[in-house]
Amino acid sequence: MKPFDEFVSNKMIIIASFILGAFVIYPRIISLPGELFYITNPGTKVGYVLFFSFRYLFFSLLTWILLTVNIRKQDTLVFTERLLKTFLITVVAYILYVLFSVAVSKHADCFTGLLLFQFVVTCLLCSFIGHFFAMYSKQRKQEHEIEKLQTEKLQSRYEALANQINPHFFFNSLNGLTALIRDNKKS
């Protein structure tokens, strides 16, 4: 039986990453039309939309990395250890985001509470998903082991019963043959 994480394909992780990326930046998605309405310069609008697209792709990529690490690379069931590793990756991603944001955009919103909240949500969400997969995989392995032990137990009981019955059939067959031989000699 395969562990549960082998049933999760890379395609499923990518799709989940795009969905979770949209979920994480949902407050920015909601405010996008209003912010674009107040921007009058067409060049600034294009830059804003491009930076918004970058943010979405960045969070989708971060989510993909964290899900891949949590589902495929970490086999620990200790949640704090999983959370710490995920947090370290998230901090590195946040630093990269801040550096890119400051270098590219004049209106760098990389120090807002909303952005920090989005990184924290991404970290926690991916940690919980990875922990769920690890626990489910462990449960499936234990169920498989129990099923295997029950099968072995039934097999050994069957063999013990067969070993008890076979000598009786052999003895009865010999008695039957002996009786036939005696009857044959008398006739």
UniProtKB/TrEMBL annotation:
<dbReference type="InterPro" id="IPR050640">
    <property type="entry name" value="Bact_2-comp_sensor_kinase"/>
</dbReference>
<keyword id="KW-1133">Transmembrane helix</keyword>
<feature type="domain" description="Signal transduction histidine kinase internal region">
    <location>
        <begin position="157"/>
        <end position="185"/>
    </location>
</feature>
<feature type="transmembrane region" description="Helical">
    <location>
        <begin position="83"/>
        <end position="103"/>
    </location>
</feature>
<feature type="transmembrane region" description="Helical">
    <location>
        <begin position="12"/>
        <end position="29"/>
    </location>
</feature>
<dbReference type="Pfam" id="PF06580">
    <property type="entry name" value="His_kinase"/>
</dbReference>
<feature type="transmembrane region" description="Helical">
    <location>
        <begin position="115"/>
        <end position="136"/>
    </location>
</feature>
<protein>
    <submittedName>
        <fullName>Sensor histidine kinase YpdA</fullName>
        <ecNumber>2.7.13.3</ecNumber>
    </submittedName>
</protein>
<dbReference type="GO" id="GO:0000155">
    <property type="term" value="F:phosphorelay sensor kinase activity"/>
</dbReference>
<dbReference type="InterPro" id="IPR010559">
    <property type="entry name" value="Sig_transdc_His_kin_internal"/>
</dbReference>
<keyword id="KW-0472">Membrane</keyword>
<keyword id="KW-0812">Transmembrane</keyword>
<dbReference type="GO" id="GO:0016020">
    <property type="term" value="C:membrane"/>
</dbReference>
<feature type="transmembrane region" description="Helical">
    <location>
        <begin position="49"/>
        <end position="71"/>
    </location>
</feature>
<keyword id="KW-0808">Transferase</keyword>
<keyword id="KW-0418">Kinase</keyword>
